[in-house]
Amino acid sequence: MIPGPKSQLTTAALVAVILIIVIQLYLFETVLAAVLDGQRSVLPGALAVSAVLSIVVLLIALKLPSLDRHY
Amino acid sequence: MPHWKKSFPVDLAEEGHFSRREFVRFLAMVSAGFTAGIGYLALRKQPLAGAPDSVAAPVGPLRVCPASELAPGNSRLFTYRDDRDRCILVRTRQGTLKAYRQTCTHLGCSVRWDGQRLECPCHHGYFEVDRGFPVQGPPTRPLSALAAVEQDGFIWVIGDLPKPTLSQEKS
Ligand code: FES
User: Which of B102, B105, B107 has the most ligand 1 atoms within 8 A of CB, as the residue to mutate?
Assistant: First the structure.
């Protein structure tokens, strides 16, 4: 069966979400290491980036209609 | 059919079924957890336990132990700024005194002396004892160092040392 455009969209969304989780993990690890080193200046920027990534994942999780389809 | 299967009649094929949306929702919670963690670090005013505190007033000299109690190649644990500020004092085989905070600069586990290097057991990170630079494993930053001296038959820790840089190391 050839996957339709909706199926591909869902797969792309899943890949994007997993990629974001990997970035979040790396970001958290880096920020924690910096804070343990006494460098707190990275925190505001890291928090902003992390919040944006979380909002993207939340939007995909709540709003993407094709996630409910069964293939 | 085994007895437990009669008691718990769960169809495993059906049990493993969950939708893509449920999966992505779960990942969204994980992502929000990371954001909350960074938010907590940003809101927290005090430094994490064992992290150097650049704004705190300098702590005076601390008498750690009689010099005769620390033979070459041995180490001793002590606390410096407060009870949570765990540090390690090492007398190298050459007899030099070195003191570091025990907090690993990767994710904060406590380093220990393995006779040659400082070792972090959590992810097998290693730091050389001379200046506290990471030499193996995930850590990328040097340990926070303290100045230790021997005087009047005792070993004293007299304060924080500035963070070493790689360019200093090369010179
Ligand atoms: S916490 Fe020390 S190596 Fe990871």
Answer: B107
